[in-house]
Each structure stands twice: as structure tokens, then as C-alpha cells.
Amino acid sequence: MSRAAAPDDLAVRIRAATEWSAGHRLRHAAQSVAGRAYPRIFGMLREPSWLFFDLVFPILGMAAFVFLLRSRGADEAWISATILASALLTFWTSVIWMMAGQFRWERDSGNLTLYITAPVGLGAITLGMAIGGAVGMAIRAAIVITAGLLLFGAQYSVGEPLLLLVTLLLGVAAMYALGACLAAFFLVSGRQADHLGDLLNEPMQLLGGLFAPIRNLGPIGLVAIGILPLAPAADALRQIAVPQLAASGLLPVPVELAILAAMVVVFGILSRHALGYIERIGRSGGRLLTRAD
Amino acid sequence: MTTNPSRTSVAAVEARGVGRVFQAKGGPVTALHGIDLRIEPGELFGLLGPNGAGKSTLIKILSTLLLPTTGGASIFGLDVVAETERVRRIMNLVAGGDFSGYGLLTVREQLAMFAQFYGMPYREGMRRVDEQIDAFGIREIADRKISALSTGQRQKLNFARSFLNDPWILFLDEPTIGLDVAAARDVRERVRAFQEAEPGRTVLLTTHYMAEADEMCDRIAIVDHGRILAQGTPAELKRMVQREALFIVGVDDLPAGVTPATLRALPGVLSVAVRGVDDDGASGIGSPITRLAIGLREDGALGGVISSLAGAGAHLREIAKSEPTLEEVFVQLVGRGIGESEAEPAG
Amino acid sequence: MQTDATGFVERAPRPFGPLRGAAADAARSLIAAARLAWAIEGNWTEPFYLAAYLIVRPLAFLGLFLAVLSIGGNLHPESIGFVVVGQAIFQVVGAALQGPTQALLDDRERYRTIRYIFTTPSSLLPVSVGRALVKAAIAGISAAIVIGVGALLGMPLRAGGVDLPLLAAVLALGLLSIVGLGIALGAICVQLRNDAWGYPQAVAGSVFLLCGALFPLEVLPGALRAVGAALPITWWIEGVRRALLGTTSPGLLGELPTASLVALLFVGTAAIWLIAPRLFVLGIDRARDKGYLDRNTAS
Fold it and tell me: How high is the pLDDT of residue B130?
């Protein structure tokens, strides 16, 4: 077998192939995000059992709190707030298991190696995961709320739907931005990440003021509302969607929106640095990004 | 296979004193000791060595997965540390025993996703996906979920993915591990076809299968304990162990007047030894066969030996060339078989 | 050693007959499995996670429920006691109910040892029971911590002290009943291909709603109330409340005399253990025949 000698201008051709214009880079970034979001949105719909569990657990949890409230003779407005909180919880659960814990799974399955060696960047991958996860969970959250409306007769009075939508979008964005930071942290943590995921569930529901107003936590509530996206999101959404409970809010809605917007920016920047950091230490240390040989 | 391709000004792969130390609990572990390597464009270069030799570590450094501790490397003149993004645009990687992929996606969807990751315009990407699906003969499973694929099918998918971006440099890290004979052969053929389709395409293959390296590679570097012990074409490496061309010639019987000494006197003959006299039942005749091991300076000298034997009335029964294997080369260089650990005595 | 007519060596004769030998084998397997579970489940070498799972998580749950409870008005000590006891016992219920399934799936998919255990002379039944018992025991530590915290929060104990004989009886019977349910569930879940992990959690979550752990059964709609009233776990929790707090639940359950409650629990537990082992063996045999024992369901 013989091979022709490589053309003299081969190196020139190859170097030219590596130079991408700004437009190419932008298109590539969008493609990468969309590419990674795809399995999240469409792949997840293919597994009916996943859809089943993504709905059963929130509905069971919701029912537990609803019956508990009814056993105490609480105002029905709190039932509506509980159902809203259950829907919001689907996003948080997705952030923990499908964002924070995802890179470990990607590494163990070998996908992370392919992402690192492709010209795609972990930032685009993470953003794709977040968008795909948020879209997937939005469907589930809508189903949970519908179930709540049908099973428990929840009632909402939304005077400002646009405000509600903006709050929801900011809350979800802030949660997923935190999830991106946690993804880097969980990867570094190794097997401990499984434990961390478990530990971030119920304590966060308490500190996030999901099912009981964060105002009741006193100073701890003030700290939590500044750190945990779940807290300002849940508090603001409750005030907007269930106006009868507006007095239960810790801070005014505009302030909580500002906090969420700041979280999106801060966690977004942090995640970018965190992902860069893990790629650097992964390539230097040699163990983080690839599964054990 | 060709002998060394002509040296170009820019190497496809150039490693200059590449060293890699890992920090482990028991102390630092040196996986690579100052590797120097140059692979020309268009070569299919093999790294051959046992598990733990450092082959995968070197490939990880060259494929930008790992940083070297010392030294540097470049791919077509692009530094793997300083110009990582550019390197990733022209390379791809296949690892053996790889179960990457999202089980819920179909083969087509998985390939389409990676087409996006490599920055291909959508239509172009889909065209390339269909092209690779046909090239690898996986059209009938194109719409099957990845979780339902067999090992061989998954590896075909891996290869199809790796060819999507028409890489100038393809890293294959033990690509046929876990594959059956037919699947492994198929993989080797596709790699060859990939290279032949475009001059300049370069492949770096790591393997511990000697036969695979012998069959596929233009040049081979034998690696052990993080060092390159020898490199060259398979023929050059084998000549390190056996400098002469060795032929086994079987005759019914040595005719009168023909002895090892008289044969040794022929031009180009370096050595003659009687390997033995066997009762060769395979011939169906049951007659003895005398085998002579004849060492020649070059293959061309065989003609004189055959003429001499035939002229003396010998009935030739068989002629075979005896070559050392790469395993024998490895044992010669390292002092143990490729599958043996250092603690075990060789043989 | 005795040999048969073909010359094969028979098993050494057992000194007390075949039944005693089988029981000794089962006990040995159960103890070995229990020791394994103690090592795996305890996080004993990682104090942070030990504290987190044994203390932080259960207390976070309790805090969550008490916070919701406070929405309806001031928290009375009786309300705190009701939730504390229910939450504490449900730590054990959840662990024992999910434990056998988790152990089977862990062995099948994570540790890949199930084929090796299955092909020993030992049965998977005592192995599963041993693992479940230890998971329940570890959860029992959490339960005790929750009750301790409840006492600190003002949970009133039974006047005259805790009814220890009643407590011992209901705890023993309740634990047996839930382990029996757990092994039956395990045998069912091992048949499933996808997301077998999720089903025990879903079952535990459903039981949590129905067993009066968090709120009286009277809050539930009629059909669900009837189902809840028929669960041994409901009687168990009611029995523990009576032993610890000296209170009874509102409604029909509270009107049941304590002796009848214990008798019901005994009969229920016996019924479970008549059916569960058979179901387990059937389930494992079916799984073996279908090739489910040795597969990995991860995609």
C-alpha cells in the first residue's frame, strides 16, 4: 500500500481550518448549547418511567403537605401556595440531580472525555444542560400544578402574569446557574457528591422557605434569601400568585427580583470560573476528567 | 506499507521531552520520562507496549486531555497546551471499551449532536452524519437507541462520530479492545480507508495487540515504563532481533554431496542448520522431510540455494520465510513478554 | 463422609437433622449480610456524612413538617408529639421498606455480586432480611435522635412513664412486618427493567401518606382512609404513640383498645410472613429464569 506524499501547503491548510470567524464561533456556541439541550428535552420524554417518577414524587410530597395543612385547619390559600411550591421543587430537584451530579455521570460514562476533546467548551455544555433541564421540568411543573388544581382545588389570582413569568424565569435561571457551580464542585468531590445531593434536598426545602414562609426562620431566613435562589423565588411567587398571603413575604417582590437577577449574574460568572478551574486542574492532575483506566 | 514517508517541515505530531508525573497516595508516579517523538503527516503510527507503559498517558497529552509535566508537544505545528482550542478543531479520538453516549438517543441523534459540537452548519452536519452511517454500514440501526446496541455496534458508532469532522489527526486508544475478530478487522479496514481518502491524514494508534500493530502501522514505537525503547517500521524492528532473512526449506532428503557446509558456501548464505527430520504425515505419503533453516544476507539469495538443491536432485517439499514477531522484539528489548509483569520470570 | 452408590461424597450428616442445618445456614447468611450492611450503610468512616444522614437530614424533615404545622396556628405540644413520633417511626419504615430492594439492586448493578451470592448454597432471602434489619437499625438511631429532639421541643411523654412492654411489642412486631413487606417489594422490583430504584421510594411515599405518620387518618378522603386503616404500619405508629405519649389518634383508630391493636399487628405480621417469603422466592426464581438477576439496567 502506498500513500501519496502530503501536499507542501498542508500545514497552511490545516492552520486555516482551525481559524474560525466570529460568526462561526457564535453559531458554534449556539449549536453546542442546542445540541446538549436536545437529549435533555427529547431523550427524557422517551422514558415513560422517568416522567412517572418525576411526577409521582412531587405529587406525593404535595399531598403530604396539603393533608398536614388541612389537619391544622389552615387557610386554603396555603394549599394553593403548597402546590406552587411543589412545582418549583421539581426545578430544584432537577438542579441537584441533573445539573450538579451530571458531570460525574458524564465522566464515568466517557462522555466528558469527548466533550473536553471537542471544540465545544464546558460552558456551552452546561448551558445546554440547564436550558434542556428547565424546559423538561417546566412541562413537569405544569403537570404538577394541574394535578394540584384537580385534586385539591387550588386557586390562584394572578393580577400581574408578566411579573409572575419574569419571577419564574429569573428564579429558574438563578437555580440553574447555581447548579452549574455545583456541577464543578460535585465533580471535584467525587463519590461524596451522591451524599451531597441527598443532603441538599430536604434541608434546602426548609431553608428555601418552600412549604413554610421563610419569614418564620428569622435571621436565618434573611441569610438564606440572599444565598439560595429557591428562597427569593418561592417567596416572590407566593406573593404574586396567592395575594392573600402577600403579608407572609419576607421582602417586597421587587427586592426579591433584584436578588434573583444578581444571583443569575454572580452564579453565572462563578460557574464560568469554576468550569475553567476544573478543566485546568483536571488536565494538570489527570484524574478528574477521565474515568479510571 | 511504505517505508518512512519523506520528512516534511511540519510534523503531524511532535513531542519534545514530554514527561508526566502523577501525584499518588504512595508518592509521585512517573508515567512518562521525556518522550521524543515525531510522526509525519499521512503516517499510521503505533504505540505498542503493555498495560501501564504510558501509551494512554501520551495520547491523552497529545489529544489535549492532559497537560505534560515537562516538555511540549504540537499537532501540525499547533501547541497542545497554548493552542488547545485549535487542536481540538482538527482532531478526534476513539477509546476502546468506551460506552459513552446517551442511551435514550438514537444513533443518528447522537451523531447529529456531535456534528453540532464540531461546529458544522446544520445541513452539512446531517449530510456528514448520513455519510458516516453508510460508511460504517449502520443504517439499519440508525434509529435504534444507543442503550440497545451491542459492543461492536457501539464501537462503530464511536468511529462514525470520530470521522464526522474529517479530523487531520485521529487518536485511537486501544480501539479494538473487547471486539470480536470480525469487528476488529472491520475497524482496521475502515481506518485504512479513512487515511487513503485524503493524503496527510494521520493516525496515532495505541495497542498491546502485536499482530494489530504489525498489520496496520507504518512505524511503531515500543513503549515500556514511560520510555520509548525502540521505534521504526515493523521490518526494522524485527531486524533488530534477527538481522538475516531466515527461510525454512523442506526436502525429502539431502542429496549426496549436499551438506550444510556446501550450502553455506553459496553466495549470500550466512548460516545453514538442519532443523530436524520429521515423518510428515500431512503429506499423506508418510515419508520423512528434512527441514533446513537457511539464513541469508538478503531474500534474493534464496534463488541460488534452491537452484543448487534442485540441481543436486533434491525434491523440494516446502519453502517458508521465518520472521520474528514483534513479541520477540519486545522480549528482546524488555526482557519479558508483553503480558507478563515484572515480578514473573519470563517464559 | 458417606458416599452414595455412584461414589460421590454426600454431605456430612448433620448432628440434629436437616431442619437445624438449614436454619443454621440461614442464620449464618443473615448475620454475614447484616455485617456487610453495617459496613456499607453506616458511613462510619466518614463522620461528616454519618452526622448528615443520621442527624441533619431527619431533623430537616422534622423541621420542615413542624414549620408547615405552625402555619395553621400555634404549635401545641400534642401536635408536636404526634408529628415527632410519626416522623421518627417512618425513618425506620422507609429504611426497612426500601432496604431489600436497594440491596438487591445494589448487588446487581453497582457491586455486581448478585450472581456470586446467588450461586452459593445460601439463599438470597436471609441475605435480604439481614441487610434490611441493619438498615432499619441504623435508621432507628435517627428515630431515637428525632424523639430526643422532640422531647426538647416540649413533646409530652406519657404520664407515668413510657409503657415499655407495649413499646417493645409494637416495635418488634412492626419491624418484622415492615421487613416482610420490604422483601416482597424487593422481589417485585427486581423484575423491573427501568428505574426499579424509584418504585420502593414511590411505595414508601404512598405509605407515608396513608399510615397516619404526619396527620390523622380522618383528614384523608374515605377510600384512602380505609386503605390506611388496614396497614400494619398504621397500627405500629399508633401503638408507639400510645406507648410513648399515652395519646390516641382521633377517629376509629383511636377507639381501638390497645390489646386489640397489638393483636391486629401480630396477625398482620404473621400474615405478611406467611406470604412474603414465598413471594420472594417466586420473584427471585422468575428473575433468574428471565435473566434479570444478572443484568444492568443503566442506560
Answer: 96
Q: Which residues of B touch C298 (CB under 8 A)?
A: 103
Verify whether the Cβ–Cβ distance B6 to A28 is below 8 Å. no
> Model confidence at A291, in pLDDT bands (50, 70, 90)?
low
Give the C-alpha separation, A15 to B94, whole Å: 23
pLDDT band, residue B8 (cuts 50/70/90)? low
C60 touches chain A (CB under 8 A): yes
From the CA atom positions of chain B, what is the Rg in Å? 25
Measured in angstroms, the CA of C112 and the nearest CA of chain B are apart by: 17
- Contact partners for chain A, using 3 or more CB pairs closer than 8 A, are B, C
Chain A: residue nearest C68 by CA?
A212
Percentage of chain B exceeding pLDDT 90: 54
Pick from A50, A67, A213: CB nearest C215: A67
Closest Cβ opposite residue C72 in set A72, A205, A211: A72
Whether B119 contacts chain A with CB within 8 A: yes
Residue A286 main-chain phi, psi, to 5 deg: 90, 0
Kindly provide the b/e burial profile for residues C233-260, where b requires at least 16 CB atoms within 10 angstroms of the residue's own CB. bbbbbbbbbbbbbbbbbeeebeebebee
Task: Tell me the C-alpha distance between C133 and C97, whole Å.
Answer: 10
Residues in chain C: 299
Taking the Cβ of residue C68 and every Cβ of chain A, the question of whether any pair is shorter than 8 Å is answered with: yes
Tell me which residue in B76, B98, B109 faces A11 most closely, judged by beta carbons. B76
This prediction has a pTM of 0.82
What distance in Å separates the CA atoms of residue C275 and residue C283, rounded to the nearest whole number?
12
Of residues B263, B262, B257, the one with CA closest to residue B301: B263
DSSP string, A181-227: HHHHHHHHHTTHHHHHHHHTTHHHHHHTTSSS-GGGGTHHHHHHHHH
pLDDT of C44: 66
| Cβ proximity of C109 and C193 under 8 Å | no
B307–chain C Cβ distance below 8 A for any pair: no
Contact predicate B99/B145, CB 8 Å: no
Contact A43/B67, CB-based, under 8 Å? no
Cross-strand partners of B94: B172
The alpha carbon of residue C20 is apart from the nearest alpha carbon of chain B, in Å, by: 47
Could you say which residues of chain C have pLDDT below 70? Answer: 1-20, 42-45, 72, 194-195, 295-299
pLDDT of residue A244: 92
Residue A3 and residue B86: Cβ atoms within 8 Å?
no
pLDDT digits (tens, 9 = 90+) for A222-270: 999 999 999 999 999 999 999 999 999 999 999 999 999 999 999 999 9
Which string of DSSP letters, residue by residue, matches B228-264? EEEEE-HHHHHHHH--SEEEEEEESSPPTT--HHHHH
Nearest CA in chain C to B101: C299
3-class SS of residue B163? helix
Whole-number pLDDT of residue A5:
44
Of C43, C65, C209, which has the smallest distance from its Cβ to A60's Cβ? C209
What residues of chain C lie within 8 A of the CB of B147, using their CB? 299
pLDDT of residue B4: 44
List Cβ<8 Å contacts ≥24 apart for A150-156: A151/A59, A151/A63, A152/A62, A152/A63, A152/A66, A152/A79, A152/A83, A153/A76, A153/A79, A154/A79, A154/A80, A154/A83, A154/A84, A155/A76, A155/A77, A155/A80, A156/A80, A156/A84, A156/A241, A156/A242
Q: Is B44 on the interface with A (CB under 8 A)?
A: no
In this complex, the chains that touch C, judged by 3 or more CB pairs closer than 8 A, are A, B
Q: Which of A70-79, B320-329, C233-242 has the lowest mean pLDDT?
A: B320-329
Region label for B98, one of left (φ > 0), alpha (ψ between -120 and 50) or beta (otherwise)? beta
Q: Does B290 touch chain A (CB under 8 A)?
A: no
